[in-house]
Amino acid sequence: MNKLRHASLAGAAITVMVLTAACGGGGSSAKDDYGKAAAGSSSTAGDGYGQAGSGSGGYGSGGSAANAGAKNAPAQQLAVREAPGIGSVVADSKGWTLYRFDKDTAEPPASRCDGDCAKAWPPVPAGDASTAMGLDAELGEVERADGTRQLTLAGWPVYRYAKDTAPGDTKGQGVGGTWNAFAPDGKKAGGKAGEEPGKGADKGADKGKEAGKGKEAEEVAGVSVKAEPTLGKILVDGQGRTLYRFDKDSAWPMKFACNDACLDTWKPARPVEKSAVQGVPEKLITTVTRPDGTKQLAVDCWPVYWFTGDKKAGDIEGQGKQGVWFAVDDQGKKVTTPKG
User: Fold this and answer.
1) Residue pLDDT, tens place only, 165-199
2) How far, in Å, CA of 104 to CA of 110, rounded?
3) Cα–Cα distance between 103 and 125 in angstroms, integer?
4) pTM here?
5) Alpha carbons 174 and 181: distance in angstroms, whole number
6) Strands 232-237, 223-228: parallel, antiparallel or unpaired by DSSP?
7) In Å, what is the CA distance from 135 to each residue of 73, 89, 193?
8) What residues does each domain of the chain span?
9) Where does residue 204 rank: exposed (0-12), middle (13-18), buried (19+ CB within 10 A)?
10) How far apart are alpha carbons 16 and 116 in whole angstroms?
């Protein structure tokens, strides 16, 4: 069993709610939106989510208070278990899957999941932790910005995922392309051997790999204007999907009100390069950072989404949904009435 090693790095954690310079200014007021599900509410009625189907609301039904306690407890003895479709992953003594964040660093250990991010991804407290046979990574700890100490594995800060509703769940695997369960050696579960982002000079190289992977995905990334018969000129993404904004979000100050269950129905649009923008003033197209650290396309500093209820390119089923979701025109304004 490994003993904890200390890595005091007060102030190393930083808030992930940051914007590009074009959308700078306001701070987030979205803490309550993350808190709803954490408090155990799985209802989305009246929240303006406008679900296309039944969805998988909130963090699970019933017993969420107990689950919240389990996700903030020390890990105790870590163990290795097999996860379908992923392979060997690390879990705590209760069977909850443990995760790592690509935007953190292991050398030196530092957490960059703070504030609202830490509500979605509860940091595992340091102390009362040990390893079992089959786990080949050193335990340690890092001091977070708030002064608390977080468990590390192979130098990486350790988290649980709030949407894992039962021990053995791996719903956090691959979220945002930056969250992964731990493999027994401290690397990312389900990844290729030797891929280890976020360590010193290698971090920049890894970002390059991330930006360049998936040629097909790059080919469909974009923003353009479509002449819609009833709404006029509206913005669509590279796949022709209508882009929407949410009235409960805010650009000034920045606020993300579509979180948790809302994201099962309204998917954050991918950021794009300026070269992939057609028919829209480039100054309107920016990138914002969500509370979980993922990037999202913004138009005139408003986060934009596509709707899972739109089944084919050009559909506008999300328009006016619950009176809070609206298409966006070629000047970055919401479209509230049909053309003419």
Assistant:
1) 999 999 999 998 899 999 999 999 986 433 444 44
2) 6
3) 19
4) 0.46
5) 8
6) antiparallel
7) 20, 9, 16
8) 5-16+63-208, 217-327
9) exposed
10) 8
